[in-house]
Amino acid sequence: MKKAYFVGIGGIGMSAIARYFHKRGVAVSGYDKTATTLTRKLEQEGMKIHYTEDVSAIPEGIDLVVYTPAVPANHAELQHFRKLGFPLKKRAEVLGIISRSMRTIAIAGTHGKTTTSSMVAHVLQTGGIDCTAFLGGIAGNFDSNYVLGQSEWMVVEADEYDRSFLHLSPDKAVITSMDPDHLDIYGDAASILETGFLAFARRLKPGGQLWVQHRFTGEFGDFPEVMSYGLDGGNYRSENLRVENGFFTFDYRSPQAHLKGLELALPGAHNVENATAAITIGLELGLSEDAIRRALRNFKGVKRRFETIFRDGQRVYIDDYAHHPSELRAAIAAARMLYPGRKLTGIFQPHLYSRTQDFADGFADALSALDEIILLDIYPAREAPIPGVSSELIFDQIDNPAKELVTKSELMSLLAGKSPEVLLTLGAGDIDTFVEPIADWLKGE
Fold first, then answer.
1. Measuring CA to CA, which residue among 132, 177, 135, 137 is closest to residue 329?
2. Closest by Cα among 59, 82, 80 to 5
3. Longest C-alpha distance within the chain, in Å?
4. DSSP character at residue 197
5. Spatial separation of the C-alpha atoms in residues 74 and 123, rounded to whole Å
6. Please, which residues bridge with residue 421 across strands?
7. Model-level pTM?
8. Binding residue per annotation — 111?
9. In degrees, to the nearest 5, what angle opens at C-alpha 69 toward C-alphas 271 and 136?
10. In which pathway does it act (predicted)?
11. What confidence tens digit (pLDDT) does each residue in 276-286 have?
12. How many Å apart are CA 167 and CA 186, to the nearest integer?
């Protein structure tokens, strides 16, 4: 194969596969709707990208077209390729094909999979296993969402959206959580379990291993290969969690090992749970205790996963991708634990009309735990508006009088009148475009 073309190349999963082909000498080009920090980085690496639906900008001699379901079916370039009979592959199909030639560790779950897969890749690399990795975020230790390795092992984030992870057949797998999400795809919670995560578990290779967060193991009654893990629960568990010297410190216990006083640089009880899965896989692959300790201490996290953007003597600013009620609760709880007694101000941008409709009461309950709430309009992403669905569905249910509903254009002027102690931006839409302006405002104030 000489030339590959990506429709939606700027997506976090798409760009990882684009990097895979580019590193192997394939000429990579593609389209995306808007230029971002990530697409500019891809261009710097040598890929050709354009930002308008323009069939004339497509190079000649394309061997493979990769697309994401996030791109509408009536997209001019997709229609062009279909008309001419080009081989079209979804991102997930391509990832499945790549994985078949390697031994695969797949990390699935409605939340926690990006941090956990990044942590697993970092632990393995630190321990001397030169794994390849396809990640759903920019991992700080690699400054990338793709890691080029030389060993037989591959770590991959297994995405449940559009049932993408059913293209994988892993040797080892982790399911971090199975809370309802993507109900626009699955319909209801029973379907996401049966046609999503249980179907994924059935794709495990014969003799493979599956670790499931201990709250969910009851759903896997007829799966003999399922093992439980978690924080204060499961056969593979972390316990005795405390904060010492700026690290989240804990003990790890499994049928094979007992490690005391492990230190994780990344804050939050939920991240200790993610680390539990990474430690377990590292030990299963024969890594030393010393390598695991070093990896945890040196783990730099993932961009937009509880990422500390700014800190001075008085104020802290943290950015987080949280876009589900469970993720909001975890981020807010981590901030409370790390900065006890400080005033927490959160700016939240709901992601998708359908998710807002499905979880409005959950969002409201999670946000009520903040001291001050600033709520933005819904980021629609791939969706058309749903009548009667807006951020007001959440706003009206927030049980805290210190709340404000504003548009994006009003946000910076609203912040100018405030003096936040611990500020969080939360959401999966384009709220990240405010990270730099907010940081600049805090630095200059």
1. 177
2. 59
3. 63
4. I
5. 43
6. none
7. 0.88
8. yes
9. 20
10. Cell wall biogenesis; peptidoglycan biosynthesis
11. 999 999 999 99
12. 17
On whether 109 is known to bind a ligand per the annotation, the reply is yes
Q: Which residues contact 417 (CB under 8 A, 6 or more apart)?
A: none
Tell me: the pLDDT tens digits for 160-180? 887 889 999 999 999 999 987
Tell whether residue 110 is among the known ligand binding residues. yes
- 140 is annotated as contributing to ligand binding: no
Give pLDDT tens digits for 249-266.
999 999 999 999 999 999
> Which tokens go with 338?
């790390």
* H or E stretch at 42: helix 37-44
Is residue 112 marked as binding?
yes
The answer to whether 121 and 278 are in contact (CB under 8 A) is no
Domains for the chain: give ranges and CATH numbers: 3-90 (3.40.50.720), 102-298 (3.40.1190.10), 307-444 (3.90.190.20)
CA distances from 206 to 128, 165, 170, 209, 225 (A): 26, 17, 10, 9, 9
Q: List the one residue out of 161, 404, 129 whose CA is nearest residue 285.
A: 129
Locate all alpha helices (DSSP H) within 216-352, ordered by sequence.
Answer: 269-284, 289-298, 325-338
Please check if 114 is assigned to a binding site: yes
